[in-house]
Amino acid sequence: MFADLADSDSEPESGTESEPSVAQDKNKKAQQVDETVVNEDEDEDEDGDGEIDIDGDDDDDDDDDKEDDDEEEDNSEDDLEDDAEQQERDEALSFRDLIGKTSRTGTVLTEGFVQAVCASFGAQNIDERSPTEVQRQSWQVLLESETWDRDVIAIAQTGSGKTLAFLVPLLAELASLSEGALQSATTSCIKPTAIVLAPTRELARQTEAAAEAVLAHPGVGIKLSVFLTIGGVSYEKSRQDLLDSNPHLIVATPGRFWSFTNPDAEDMCVSLDRIQSFVLDEADCMLDMGFLDDVTKIRSLMPAETRVILTSATWEQDSLVQVEAKKLCRTGQSPIYIGVDSQKGLTAARTVQQRVEVVKHKGAPRFRLLVETLAPLVKDNAETDALAIVFVMFKQESKKVAQDLREEGIPAVALNGDMSQTARHEALETFKRGEALVLVATDVAARGLDVPSVELVVNYSLGMTIEEYVHRIGRCGRAGRAGRSVTFFLRPDDCKLGPELVKVLEDSHQQVPVDLRILAEKEVKARARKTASASSSTSSTNSRARGGGGASGAVVLDQDEADRLEQQRANREKQLRLQRQRDAKSGKKGGGKSRRGRR
């Protein structure tokens, strides 16, 4: 299921190819199975139009019932086929098959290295678990000579193991450096070999911890230096620690990292002219939420031949994110696209049971519903150790909801971007230890956060985009475990996202409430009316222009969706600028000029 991205702006259809790959030569059987799965998934949407069909009458109930029965039988057969296909994919590449593979720098993966990888996520031995689909496909590309030098865009559901998908080849490549001296450095400038950028401090810290967990295993036999640099901590101390560490691999958030690499800054301390691999985790977020400027400037300081790896759980087709992603990749060759389930657009993890409650009021009724939703988890916690995350829209709201839950006898902590890095870390650790059963968070926790005990995600409100909804509910149901999500769909605030939410629910075979369908259909009709009105205005304006009347110049039309998305993006960029200003003040208390990018 990997294919080369064409030079056009749109993604290729699933299963298209432009040149042979190792997966075709050595794992042809597994690829054929994957393509069969893709074709079956495409056949599920018979309309192919992605629209929500809501019919208020019962004229064709008998035919519909018969079709439903036939569809249920087909689904049962599909489930059996999926089980067989999954078994065949499991046989395609196991962790044991990694032993003996070679990285592009010549490192041979030993049994001790593979054992370290398995131990990093709790497996007792190599044969206890199998790699996830995105891991298999990534390793088939990045650990084979025919393709290991290609840029890669890996799209997979939340909780599918994307971090190890890029870390295993990356650490194997860097292992060759551990046998010689560290890369050259001066007292004021270092030259690392690989960079991983993440959008949030929590995700960056989690990625660094995953790398350290592999390297700390006694059987790995690799001595590599990995350094984490994020905003919210002392700038000067972080800079000095970075120089002292002289790391091979740096994991960072973009704002803080740019402040170290900016060639125009007097205290620039990181040179990127020896970077061999550049990983952009949660690429859709990094290229569409205020990080693009920093990411582009950082990439421009690297050699043109630097290999680029982009990962994400969401990937909108024909989007500006795709255009920017291709700009980061090398010219002259198309990146290899690795898509699992998300090739056709937005896909929620199928291990998560999703429920939507349409709520009319934001006040006490909604909070009482939240308490009722959390009550069973709190009651059973002594036996299950299950935890829950409640996502809210605003930073102050996270504090208030957490406090109100504590007053109800539910142990809860808040997590938001206004908290200091120390406070954020302490809150997260308190939650991971189970001392607080509920984490009330803004979207700062929606990306990449992996806490195995999280069984339930509650969206106190839907969120600003449907992409954030998918990332939020992906905090549970990770690595194949079962999870549940409950979303409070607020009227009228969330109605503009109704059609997209219905589509996500339907694509992941979840129940769609009747009242949500009705609201979604109203939104579809409202959009159609607005489009028709805009088209009419355009025709009228063009007619007047041809007749010589009316004002000259272009007419700006009301594009509802474009306006909404642009406003969301502007709001997030504003929040990011304010956060950087706060970080700059907290990072250097003694005064002096403020530094940008302290995320």
UniProtKB/TrEMBL annotation:
Record's compositionally biased regions (Basic residues): 587-599
Sequence ranges of Low complexity compositional bias: 531-545
EC number: 3.6.4.13
Regions of compositional bias (Basic and acidic residues) in chain numbering: 562-586
Gene3D superfamilies linked: P-loop containing nucleotide triphosphate hydrolases
Ranges of residues in domain Helicase ATP-binding: 143-320
Organism: Hondaea fermentalgiana
Taxonomy of the source species: Eukaryota, Sar, Stramenopiles, Bigyra, Labyrinthulomycetes
Xref: InterPro entries: DEAD/DEAH_box_helicase_dom, DEAD/DEAH_RhlB, Helicase_ATP-bd, Helicase_C-like, P-loop_NTPase
Ranges in a coiled coil: none
Region (Disordered): 1-97, 527-599
Residue span(s) of domain Helicase C-terminal: 369-520
Tagged with keyword Transmembrane: no
Keyword Transmembrane helix carried by entry: no
A Pfam short name: Helicase_C
Protein name (database record): RNA helicase
Biased composition, class Acidic residues, residue ranges: 1-16, 37-85
Alphabetized GO MF terms: ATP binding; hydrolase activity; nucleic acid binding; RNA helicase activity
Top-rank taxon: Eukaryota
Keywords assigned: ATP-binding, Helicase, Hydrolase, Nucleotide-binding
